[in-house]
Amino acid sequence: MICSESHAVGLGSRRAGIAVLIFAIFVLAAMILPVKAGTVDARFNSISDVAVSTSNFSADGLSLNLSLGFVPPVGADLMVVRNEGVAFISGRFSNLSQGQIVVLGYGGFEFTYVANYYGGSGNDLVLHWHRRKIYSLASASWIDDTGVLSGKSVVSVAGGYNFSLALCSDGTIASWGFNLNGQLGNNSGTDSLVPVLVDRSGVLLGKEVIAISAGRFHCLALCSDGTVASWGLGNQGQLGNGTTPTLCPTPVAVDNSGVLNGKTVVAISAGGSHSLVLCSDGTLAAWGSNYYGTLGDGTVTSSNVPVLVSDIGDLESNSVVAISAGLVHNLALRSDGSVLAWGSNSSGQLGNGMTSPIGVAENSTGSGVFLGRTPVQIVAGDFLSAVLFSDGFAATCGSNNSGQLGHGVRSYPSATFGIVTAVGPQTGSPLLSVATNSNQTLAITLAGSIARWKASSAS
User: Fold this and answer.
1) CATH 2.130.10.30 domain range(s) in the chain
2) pLDDT class for 374, splitting at 50, 70, 90?
3) Closest by alpha carbon to 265, among 289, 244, 240, 246?
4) CA distances for 91 relative to 88, 266, 420, 425, angstroms
5) Which residues, 6+ apart, have CB-to-CB distance to 36 below 8 Å?
6) What are phi and psi of 145, to 5 degrees?
7) Of 301, 334, 298, which Cα lies nearest the Cα of 316?
């Protein structure tokens, strides 16, 4: 445990209270602080401060000196290392392990965090607010944390079709909701109204799970060794284990004897009936249903093992740094800030001005609202796509039958990206994170509020 100005305290301390965990928020502004010989000094005077911003960071042989210079907002995370690129941080600080409790003091108050070397974009060292609670917008209620989540600190959440996942700092995974297809991963087909633990006695035994993703009826888990596990519905090959089972109620290993042989997976995204992963060398692999060219290999042949996303199109010139799988389409963010899209395009969700499917990745951001802006987050929904820019604006395209594009009107689909007018800097609320589902789009604003738009307004 790392302490500053005080010792670790229990739940009855004066530290600030619980935070609503909807989806992760990470501020991108950075401040470089000095790295002394053997020691990194990280003093936070605001939530926008970042102690170290670099590429291929190695913590080997270093210790960390943490301190607060302000009272942090309730629920706010602190980014210690923003590791540019896609590679994981190498090694660990000598005095900070994965999942370690960190207590920082300021002004007579204590604030408790938990360390996550796989936070932020998946490879950043982030201090998450300790003992965050999960709130469901669908049921307008807090998720029960008296059972399997008791005493645990949640670092990320994922939502599928009427079920949810939560990853804890100790690497355990909790799930709840519908379980007809074994998507809860607890070796049962019984629905659960409270969190249950995903089974870790098989392929996840001894593994450190660092990321989760929920598709329509299946799930993915990424381990620190770069391997991937899956469970749930597998009838389209979306589990990637070389078979097409009706369901797998416990995790199975995604095949890594083929195109993933020798590669390290660094990011995962589960789609409707397919899965997409990003490797440390910038290449992409996909598996599952390929009816609309969703796998991006230039064919419409489904696969129950990973296949490489083709680099015939626009993938070859720049490495990919982020991915997002939608219901039947995908997005990829490249290092030059461009966004690639492929798969189904029935509602114009690829943003290329057309509505025909594309079987290889193509650039959807050559002009228009992308000029002069830097994309920092991509989200592929059911039939729409969203891109968040560094200036706090967002752009959307695709289905708009419920006004979910946020363009101020409820209308026909939009096949090109347009700026969200419902909320953003123009309304005094710069956006920090976005999420979508079939008929609405949500965002976290700089002020910490949740914006949600459907029909013709935001709330």
Assistant:
1) 134-309
2) very high
3) 240
4) 9, 16, 41, 39
5) none
6) -125, 25
7) 334
Q: CATH for 134-309?
A: 2.130.10.30
Q: pTM of this prediction?
A: 0.89
The highest-confidence range among 30-44, 195-209, 312-326, by mean pLDDT, is 195-209
Residue that the structure tokens 């998507």 belong to: 183
pLDDT digits (tens, 9 = 90+) for 119-164: 999 999 999 999 888 988 888 899 999 999 999 999 999 999 999 9
User: Distance from CA of residue 75 to its chain's centroid?
Assistant: 18
Quick: pLDDT tens for 221-241. 999 999 999 999 999 999 999
Compute the half-sphere exposure of residue 129: CA atoms within 13 Å on the CB side of its CA: 20
